[in-house]
Protein 1
Amino acid sequence: MEQQTLLDGLSRLADEQQKLAEATSALMAQAQNLALNDAGGGHGFFITGLTVFVLACFVGYYVVWRVTPALHSPLMAVTNAVSSVIIVGALVAAGLPELTPSAWMGLAAVVLASINIFGGFIVTGRMLHMYKKKGS
């Protein structure tokens, strides 16, 4: 009798486990559908990203234009350091095995950040050359 009760309990547990597995599969499918719908047609992320970009442009503009000439060279050095970090992230995005929009944007980021770095070194060199004495 005890053995039959144990077998009945195990049978009920197996049925409940099967129902839980089906419910988990259904929830995973719903989560994947929501993720795909949000990634493809969600405008919330685009608006948030655009807002952050515009605010960063304004803050960057006002910070750079308020810098005194004596601090311009250190600011350029920091800008070059930030651009080097951007290049690392852009290389990760551009190194995708398939040609997706992210890979193209990563390539564009590598090119633009490289121009920024090399231009920054040129401008910093010219600024430092201005501080040298005329006879040297």
Protein 2
Amino acid sequence: MLTNDLNEIWGEVLPIIQEECTAVAFNAWIKKLSPIDLKDGVLSLSIDNEINKNLVFRRYGELIRQSFKLVTGEYPELRILVQSQIDEEKEQKREPQNKYDKYTFDNFVVGGSNQMAQAVCVAVADQPSDVQYNPLFIYGGVGLGKTHLIHAIKNYINENEPDIKIALVTSENFTNEMVEAIRENRSSEFREKYRKLDVLLIDDIQFIAGKKSIEEEFFNTFNVLHESNKQIVITSDRPPEEIKTLEERLISRFKWGLQCDIQPPDFDTKLAILKNKAKEMNLTIDDQILYRICEVANSNIRELEGALNKIMAYKSLVNREITPELAEEALKEFGPRDKADITPEFIIDQCSKALGVSQQELYGDNRKKEISSARKVTMFIIREILGTSFPKIGALFGKDHSTAMYAIKSVENQIAVDPKLKMNISDIIKDIKNERGQ
């Protein structure tokens, strides 16, 4: 529908809504809505922030739809978007990858946790034909900057060496593209596209694990490119040997080059990231508030930015200046992290550090006493904090449910007679919960 027509209709809808809600509600929320589009039975409206969006949708969504029906005879589905979502949709319509154009080496904040990964990525981008690090395998948890770095490589090469044939694809898109090519009898075209590249960047490789035909195709593509001295860069949420059900021959090839891990940022790096983000948003925020966000957001960059966005949304909602007191209100208003934020993987990571045993050893089959004991304690702590079932705990470590049950019962029997072990485990559990603000 044309924008002018929709604006006219919305002008008729508003008085109907106004009659059905309080003046305070109408002025605080409904008046902030603006029509965007009416297409295929879906009415899209914009609003200023995520909090107001959720509140309006929950409390007044049905009223808006009914009022719209009274004016037009249509009873539309309803979408309410904030500006960032509108911008993202516009970017996607222009070019799916454009939203990543902002990812550069210049705006990647470097700290001790990511310094090596950043330096190697810069080296690869600067000399993509050198293949000193081939493949380059970057791994780390969610929201730590892997996607930023791999897109920064692509953007740098595109700008400085535009003749180089480069492709960046997620493993999910690689899979979908291959399936579609098979269905449309274009397999040879698909292979030619990827095997004639100078640089292949693939994000989140762990998602091809267990998909035999995809693993086979990627294995062959990898071999062709590697034998031709073409650069391959791969990201994953864990090192190759910890990607369960991934074929051994792929694990072996991923280890041919260089592996770089990215750890959660330390306090100074988190502070630098927040200052960089505030500068992008043209915000002036007291360091005391930034320090508090660093304390609250413990695990990754997305949490940091999420906490900052929460404070900004709260500022808009209550129409007050950002002060340390307002920041505390905002963070309290949206609640502390709940149990869902503590994942089995996070517990395994923390237990690995506390018990002095690598994650690889915890996941593996090594039966040395200290490693076996650490594995059992880790299983017990997962059960204690999350209440996870024995089959699921077993599956995490590649074991069956009876092995997990035996391990956990063994620890229960030990702590019943060993106060020191009981205290050590209690301290680990306490530290894990404190890390997540519980």
Protein 3
Amino acid sequence: MSNNEWKLVETAKEGDTHAFAQLYEKYYADLYRFALCYVKHAQMAEDAVSQAVLKAYESLRKLRKNNSFKSWIFQITANECRKMLGRKEGYLEDISWQEPQKMEEGYAVFELEELLLQLSDEERLIISMSVFASYNSKEIAAILHKKAGTVRSLKSRALAKLRIYLEEQQAE
């Protein structure tokens, strides 16, 4: 964590909403991608991130270590994703379906969802934690209560699956 980011967290903990907004802006895209990998639905991912950010803002003063902000807000997001999945059945019926929106990388949301559906839940979670939350294998292993070597193997297999799927799609 940079010194500037540490100061932003400290300032936000003191009640500065502008500082919190800067932190939100810094992490929103990664939080959204993480949530999308987790829940596999764009609207649910947006709602999970919104709820997580609100909860983070309300309980920011409880954060003990400023340098833990990133992992803390990703954990809150993961908890919100689990809640969303728990009430998914009725939730999806209430969502108004929209045209897919383009993400900054040029992939439509539905393409990313389709790609991620090629993975098991565990593989999707490991990839999202690695790619979007920037956790290393050791950190992911600690969170998931697995060995780091197991996480590396699962990640490697998941990336191989994605590569094969993308090659098949390009060949069509």
Protein 4
Amino acid sequence: MPVRNEQVPDRNIAMELVRTTEAAALAAARWVGRGDKNGADGAAVDAMRLMLDTVDMDGIIVIGEGEKDEAPMLYNGERVGNGRGPQVDVAVDPLEGTRLTAMGRPGAVSVIACAPRGTLYNPHDIFYMEKIAVGPEAKGMIDLAAPVAWNIQQVARAKSIGVEEVTVIILDRDRNTEIADQVRAAGARIRFITDGDAPAAVSAGVAGSGVDMMVGIGGSPEGVVAAAALKCVEGDFQGRLWPRNDDDRKYAADHGLSLTDVLTIDDLVKGDDVFFAATGVTTGDLLKGVEYRPGGATSESLVMRSRSGTIRRILTEHHWRKLQTLGGMR
């Protein structure tokens, strides 16, 4: 007697979303090393926007390229998708690492995350955030309000390693100098990055990356994207909005945004069904970059969903005719 299927699994739209990050990565990769970060970003935005309308979803951009008067496409509040699927919030960064791409440096990626409508945190115009990110072993063991050394000890304990074996990734900025000094004083190792703290945070939650945690002050939108990705791998993330000046403090007060509250991963991503996709543009710790070959190219992508816990690495071969459409190649 056949077994009755009581519940048919719903669709994993992350498998569709990865086509948008692949398109953006392929388009941006044509600009690697050309010194034009705006050209690279524009190509990625155009390609991702084109592909988003083919995805079965009713999406609203929550984290995008900026307000409508600043961004003609993928602006905050823009509706994306073909309108026939689930209602979702969408966070996009068609090219995380514009300067990395322009200078031909490692670590540039294209990323997108989706969660049920009304569940992604919106930092509005507070552009920076203090962050800490760890993998599943240290979930529930971190506290952004505690000293850096204490958090490093927690990660070491969770992973059953010595503090001196913990590798902490930090965005190399003056605002993070004091944090880096605390990491050194604790006895842990540091891996500095010049850009791209979203993939850096994600790498803290992915096995085999060589990264145990990420700390420091970086972009708020990137923090929300990273939180979405870490939720998919059952990692942990905490953030706190960081004002640059008095204008930011006034803006936060006027818009009811706390500059003191620590935002947990569940504050940043309330939904329990999160989709994440990323495709490498230039090879880094998280993903291999696009490699062009006669007649086409290859790309590597990371595709994850929190509800199912699936983590897929996808190596894709792209035919040259597709590249013509996406990147204007001849």
